[in-house]
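Hi F.,

I've been meaning to write this up properly since the lab meeting, where we talked about keeping a consistent format for the predictions we share between groups. The idea is simple: the sequence comes first, exactly as it goes in, then the structure tokens exactly as they come out, then a line or two of notes. No screenshots and no reformatting. I'm using this chain as the first example so we have something concrete to point to.
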Amino acid sequence: MKEQTLDLEKKYWEGMENHNYDIVKNLTYFPCTVVSKKGIKSIDEPTFKELFDSGKDMKMTIKSISEAVVQSFSNSFATIAYIIEMEADNNGQKTLHKCVCSSSWIMENAVWKCAAHSESELA
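Output, unedited:
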């Protein structure tokens, strides 16, 4: 289950990196819960799409995902926590970010979906 959950998380980030909404949408449970330095939000699909589209000019490159810890609670629920390093390019201005992230994955109709995600900049 660890590799499957890590693969799901990587696929989600690849969708974000390639700005592929269909991949990200199909891996997201709506409404999803997002926790960040901006607060806690429950996001429905139309709002998620707006937020996704607002980042179309920002390019990101995932440098690494490490130290993954996966917990399986049943055949249809798992959590993952890890460190991610990414480079963001916002109109030529590049910044490197190192964050701790966690996601909760549930299986719905035989398809895994991310129901909650949190990330925080690593000090």
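Notes:
The chain has a mean pLDDT of 94.
The first helix runs from residue 2 to 17.

If this format works for you, I'll send the rest the same way.

G.
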